[in-house]
UniProtKB/TrEMBL annotation, chain B:
Keywords: DNA-binding. It comes from the Bacteria. Residues 90-185 form the HTH LytTR-type domain. The keyword DNA-binding applies. The keyword DNA-binding applies. SMART domains: LytTR (SM00850). InterPro entries: LytR-like, LytTR_DNA-bd_dom. PANTHER family: STAGE 0 SPORULATION PROTEIN A HOMOLOG (PTHR37299:SF1), TRANSCRIPTIONAL REGULATOR-RELATED (PTHR37299). GO terms for molecular function: DNA binding; phosphorelay response regulator activity. This is LytTR family transcriptional regulator DNA-binding domain-containing protein. Pfam families: LytTR.
Length: 59, 192
């Protein structure tokens, strides 16, 4: 069993270009508790991905 | 956390937020991103965590990350994942009645009567369990929400949903007192 002591905080980006995604990722990768789960500019894709996601503690 | 470009990326960004809040089991924090400050008022009214203007400033993002971490530390996640080789077991911490140390493993006693073993020490879990879990003995951590009786003379706690009586020791008496005081605030007191 492995243990990640940090709490995983996922983030999602809704935008119509990759530029915003890259600039946010570049900064947030310095914070190990943050984890990108994707990006989209499509209403349904974004809604579906976010609703499916549940925060979890990983051990 | 959802970074949302509110400049017409979606037909109606704020409608999206409202719909998500209607269906999401866990409320997300939204961060508005925009080229202008025009929609700041609307974002504020929709309870956005922050409003960032383009081009993004690195310092603003770092401040946001710290703000988010600070906020989340007060509202911890409630799901635990016990991973063993290729086996992933998900537990809702609200359903855990107490944890018991068994050598180098820990047994989780669930409110439906099942017992789940994890191959980590009790101390490991003590550091990460939500604030309603208290160490009351070198071998026990209890979920305060299930405590229904504290017997100081016998040094035992009774918990709902299980027949177990959990011992406590003087080392952890401060935690027992804290549980007692917290529960006293919630219920009508009657002493003989």
């Amino acid at each position: 069993m492995t243990l990640k002591k940090t709490i995983l905080n996922s983030y999602y980006i809704i935008d119509n270009s990759n530029k915003l995604f890259s600039s946010i990722n570049n900064v947030l990768e310095d914070f190990p508790v943050f984890n990108a789960i994707g990006h989209s500019s499509c209403y349904n894709d974004a809604m579906n991905t976010i609703l499916k996601r549940k925060p979890i503690w990983f051990f | 956390m959802v970074f949302l470009n509110v400049d017409n990326v979606l037909d109606n960004a704020f409608h999206f937020v409202n719909e998500l809040k209607t269906y999401a089991e866990i409320l997300r924090d939204f961060v508005a991103v925009s080229a202008t400050k025009e929609k700041a008022y609307e974002a504020l009214k929709h309870d956005f965590l922050d409003y960032l203007t383009l081009p993004l400033a690195e310092l603003d993002l770092r401040k946001l990350a710290l703000k988010f971490k600070k906020k989340r530390s007060n509202t911890l996640n409630r799901t635990l994942c016990l991973k063993s080789y290729q086996d992933y077991r998900y537990l809702n911490t609200d359903e855990i009645v107490f944890l018991k140390a068994d050598n180098n493993t820990t047994d989780f006693y669930i409110n439906d009567g099942t017992v789940i073993s994890a191959y980590k020490t009790l101390k490991t879990f003590e550091e990460v369990m939500p604030k309603n879990f208290f160490r009351i003995h070198k071998s026990y951590i209890v979920n305060q929400n299930y405590v229904c009786r504290i017997n100081y003379s016998k040094s035992k706690c009774t918990v709902d949903q299980t027949p177990h009586k959990i011992p406590f020791t003087k080392t952890y008496i401060d935690n027992i007192d804290f549980i007692k005081n917290s529960l006293s605030d919630l219920f009508i007191s009657s002493s003989n």
